[in-house]
Amino acid sequence: MTSTIKPRDASELRQAVEWALNDGTTLDVRGQGSKIGLGKPMNCDQVLDLSGISGIVDYAPEELVVTLRAGTPMRDVEALLAQRNQMLAFEPPDLGPLLGREAGQGTLVGAVMGNLAGPRRLSAGAARDHLLGFSGVNGRGESFKSGGKVMKNVTGYDLSKLLAGSWGTLAVLDQVSVKVLPAPDQTRTLLLLGLDEAAAVRAMCAALGSPHEVSGAAHLPGKTALRLEGVAPSVEARLKALRELLADSGAKMAELGTLESRVFWREVRDVAPLKAAPEAVIWKISCPPTEGPAIVARLKVQRPGVEAFYDWSGGLIWLALPPSADADHAIVRGALGAKGGHATLMRAPQAVRAAVPVFQPQPAALAALASRVKESFDPKRLFNPGRMG
Amino acid sequence: MQMPPLDPAILARRGDIVAALRAIVPGEGVIDDLEGMRPYECDALSAYRQMPLVVVLPETVAQVSAILRYCQDNKVKVVPRGAGTSLSGGSMPVGDAILLGLGKFNRVLEIDYANRCARVQPGVTNLGVTKAVEHEGFYYAPDPSSQIACSIGGNVAENSGGVHCLKYGLTTNNLLGIELVLMTGEVVRLGGKHLDSEGYDLLGVMTGSEGLLGVVTEVTVRLLRKPATARAVLLGFPTEAAAADCVAAVIASGIIPAGMEMMDKDAVKCAEAYVGAGYPLDAEGLLIVELDGPPVEVDYLVERVAEIAKGRGATTVRVSNDEQERVLFWAGRKAAFPAVGQITPDYMCLDGSVPRGRLVEVLAEMREMSKQHRLRVVNVFHAGDGNLHPLILFDANDPDELRRAEEFGADILRLCVRVGGVLTGEHGVGIEKRDLMGVQFTEIDLDQQMRLKCAFDPDHLLNPGKVFPQLRRCAELGRVVVHHNKLPFPDIPRF
Fold first, then answer.
1. Which residues 204-243 of A have a C-beta within 8 angstroms of B?
2. pTM higher than 0.80, yes or no?
3. Which residues of B120-155 are buried (b: 16+ CB within 10 A; e: fewer)?
């Protein structure tokens, strides 16, 4: 049984890391552990539990910034922002249910470490675009900081970008400052019914190439959804304009009001539209939007049973495949084609994740560079060793 | 400004280095005569000048790769340069370094409207991207004021901003991919037409790395559809505090304007005399607020902004009625720097960022400092995102004034950091703010950044003398000190 160390503040965290360094102990770094099923399985000597370093440090709505400690639960942050009619614009998904866990778990910093983003990735960016600064401890047991609390900052390297999406492998954070934005007054959705995948992606790309400020574009089997957010008169006008723009798609149209829209897009965000069996393997593909349908078509030739839906105008594909010993990783990655993109294995049994690359393998020069970057933060490879394999 | 001492061994090998470069880049791509190199002796931080060792202007990625590999093998330093518009000395030459100009990489390679992106070479100008796509109603969002001249490669290096960052982000939020040549000569691609990285976000790290990590040879930018309409509101206030208050109130009300700029009374006076934009001369603080989107939304938001401003005591509220008037409102703001240049022999433009809530206090303290240093300061800035551009007026021919201006500037940047802000919001550290990095960062913070630099450039050959006040050797930085036989800290909860 792995033991757990649970520091209560930044200073104890630094001591804990220094101790691990001196002892040569590898650390499984966790907030609430809600995403431990993501990434390569690890075999660490000790769990470093950050849930004791928790709480809001500073929230000034008119500054559009919230500063909080690393173990702060996501739901606390979301509740706090909602009181002031603000939100995390990158729409972090709750992957708990997808991973066979309870909903509503996890920390904001956990979402940042996975660089997660929901449907609004298209217009608002991912976690990487909202992390303004942080403080934490590197693998030398040193406390350091980067970035700040201000919107515009080019002082020194932008380590926030690097830490976002590093899955806890570079440094252990104790505090972050994150950009927040006003929540929209209204959310409505235009549904195009009955389009095939290629026609759906064409319609979504046309909508995003219009001036109508679409903030979500997803295609589920038989149903293509376009989200409009903002003040009432604007949403109304854009909805009308979008209907006219897409009239020649030939699709039957329907609308969702604000409440229905919120439910619908939350489901898309949390990957609920995949009705896959609990044992199915789940992949996430990021690709150029127009390539989405061709990738899925190539995949279907070899795996006719694949279930797919699209977000990000076709640029994000969620896939469910029947269980297999290698998660069909070569077939999935082979289907990507030459236009670029990457596939991440988001759900599979531990033994399968141990056997295949969970993250897209990189060309040799890039992989070597990434390894040197890891070493520059964590030379003894204490933090989440091997997780990003 | 102290630069690293020149390496006499490199200077002695200049002939060999020039010959090696000529073998890589034939014809006129290697410039080694003084007259030919003169245009490269400085960038837009023109107070500092230095002739490079030699200038090389490659045309292909293979040439860039061969040059960097040669430099790595022979331990020759390299300063990359785009259009040379850096305000922080980011592309200022170094006497024992090759100046690697990317001006010949000036082609738009591909425009992909369906995927809303364009693939361009780094020497294409910022405005050139927009020009290439505007006939289809698209544009590239970041708009630094040098956009007519500055290059996209330079924008990547500096993570350039502009007046629309509040709503549309900086360069880093508008990039999809780059092609990058490492010091080893290896060519790697980061990103592409898809979103997010499969591994570490090295694209994010490269953006704003000031030419210290690698040389960018291709850029994939996000294109946005032009908003249906845009209107500007001109708001005059009897005090700077009221203007700053209005900025906070607009944002607190849930409105994110496309741009929200502030000018103080002196800036207004200069700009008005220069372009006649119709600014109210009685205002102590002037705001220009731009709102964009569908006409019905813009009309609605214009009303709300006007109401908020009146509630904060605005004495002037004017809304642009057509595109011509909107452009006129902006003309004064855009000409503010040259306009200020009319009333002073020289000025120094600073770039600190502060939390919006501290604006009033920072402006007031700056006035006090102005008295102390006996130099005038004029303020024109991106109020919406707290990015200040104080202009210190001085005469460079008076050595004492120059010294006082530099001290005043440093004091202002220290003030920015003290109130929770940063040294630079969009211009970069370069050589200009290099020696102030210790005000914002601890030695450990800077060592961590230097270690990242070592992962890309272990011999510190790329853009030496920039960003870091003191370079430490990578071998020294790489040592890990382990204190064995220490007892685990007993008071931390464990179970």
1. 205, 208-213, 230-231, 233-234, 236-238, 241
2. yes
3. bbbbbbbbbbbebbeeeebbbbbbbbbbebbbbbbb
